[in-house]
Amino acid sequence: MARAAGIDLGTTNSVIAAWEGGEASVIPNAEGSRTTPSVVAFLETGERLVGQLARRQAILNPKGTIYSVKRFIGRRFEEVEEEAKQVTYDVVPDEHGNARIKVRDKLYAPEEISALILRKLADDAGRNLGERVTEAVITVPAYFNDAQRTATRDAGKIAGLEVLRIINEPTAAALAYGLDKRQHETVLVFDLGGGTFDVSVLDVGDGVVEVRATAGDTHLGGDDFDRRIVDHLAEQFQKENGIDLRNDPQALQRLYEAAERAKIELSSVTQTQVNLPFITADASGPKHLTMTLMRSTFEQLTADLVERTMGPVRQAMSDAKVGPDDIDEVILVGGSTRIPAVQALVRRLTGGKDPNMTVNPDEVVAVGAAIQAGVLKGDVSDVLLLDVTPLSLGVETQGGLMTRIVERNTTIPVRRSETFSTAADNQPAVDVVVLQGERERAADNRVLGRFQLTNIRPAPRGEPQIEVITDIDANGILNVTARDKDTGAEQGITISESTNLDQSDVERMVREAEQNRSSDQQLREEVDARNQLDSLAYQVQRRLDELGDAAPSHERSRAEMLVADARQAVADQAPTDRVRELTDELQQVLAGLNAVSAGGGGSADASVGAGAGAGGATGGDDDVIDAEFDRS
Ligand code: ADP
Ligand code: MG
Predict the structure, then answer these.
(1) In this structure, what CATH number is given to the domain that contains residue 268?
(2) Does the pLDDT at position 499 exceed 60?
(3) Which of 278, 304, 330 is the last residue of a domain?
(4) What's the half-sphere exposure (Cβ side, CA atoms, 13 Å) at 212?
(5) What pLDDT digit, counting tens, does each position of 68-100 carry?
(6) I need a labelling partner for 117 at 20 to 30 A (CA). Which of 314, 375, 462, 629 fits?
């Protein structure tokens, strides 16, 4: 038997959970711990350690111990140059400029390091469950971009796992509390981990979880609290013994371990003892460190760190346009939220609300991921987690309009297609401009990407059938493909960050669309009217060409005059009244011409709507592609 699991691949610690006996439970690792340090060590001997054992020798093996690799996954070296200076191991660019980890002349991709962590988690869990773990839902921070998500998925693949889905950490936390089943709630997720702080505001309800805003501090977490204790202990020790323990790696490693232990104890008791026998020695003999640490001292040492969470919380609330009273639930995530002073601050910032922490803060993300894995495997039926597209997606069409293919708030994954056509006879190529936004005018929306479909079979305008397919997968990765149904010629792009837009951008774009709705609507009507007239003029001309001498001369000259007027009106962007007038007249003329000889092949289909793409192969702005599209 094989199992699906949920994995929280954290910066500091990772956790694996699986669906067992009707609920999601954390599976302990081989050492018996429920969390596994996200650390991999390469030893001189060629041996590799993962987890607690790797962490325990970190300070003694600074170049060969890889921690916080999540900071580098899916990143270009230039994006993380500053970050690279803050770790003890070497981070270098590869020949493509991607961030790589260098250990003794060997380069590792961050994905490979992460894969080693995932492999240990899955192997240990499998042993514990008595069934191999072969599939997983893996979580990532809400702000991760497409490249970071893809790299995380790849890490899963390298570890031999089938990655069922990548989901956002705060979303997983909300899921662990079953909040998705509520009606409509605003949830604040406060996540203070080992080295990072993330705060998210979510909209949950009716099976949909939407991240409305995120903020944080990528360099604030439990490690900073540990360092404060280490410095405090070392300074005290130096005062008494004249020796700075921080200069001795062996002693420093022990000091860090003791500091973290003390910190953790101070979350439940108000005073603790730090005991480090034989921590160092001098001429007078071995020295021991024995100190009492009070919670109040710890709180004084770390008050500014706690305070630093306030800015991002306020930022996220203001981006999401909510005040403390609008927040229905607060969820604490991350081991460091067990610190009493942190909890007190969260309560204060959210208007005195008692935060949810019945699910262990350091396990809640993995539990949510396991629930999602259960949903995807059909083991859980009463929860349904869906993400939605934050904004509409479409392409630019004739006259500079945006034609929507996927509407805003459509649940993903989704695949939609529309068929478009060309605007000019024998047009060999179309430019497909992929847009995101709610405005009618293409230029008022965000351009996500563009590509050209070439090798279109030479044909009269409107005849080629160009299918544009938009495909958004469950991870929010968007693929747009255009295909000439006739020749099979195909082109496409994969677009990053189509769904992990900054929430404030989404809000702004939606708001602007609302404000401009009537003028946008008018613009669309005007452009549609002109497009229709343009198409009609084309059809009349084609009918005239078909009929040749069979067209009565009176009708012919009237038709030719109207076609010329129509083209002029389109080119001049004539007022809509004039455009409608000409459209009516041309329609009559076309009906007349169609009556001339029954069975004349000219199609009178005037249902021309929008066109695909902007400029054709000639690139001129006015050489717009037209399109007849069948909404099938
Ligand atoms: P991440 O998400 O960054 O991988 P975690 O959520 O596992 O990390 O948080 C790890 C941090 O939480 C560490 O700094 C650890 O010392 C701290 N931590 C764990 N338990 C406690 C506790 N009871 N009290 C205070 N800090 C804790
Ligand atoms: Mg975490």
Answers:
(1) 3.90.640.10
(2) no
(3) 304
(4) 20
(5) 999 999 999 999 999 999 999 999 999 999 999
(6) 375
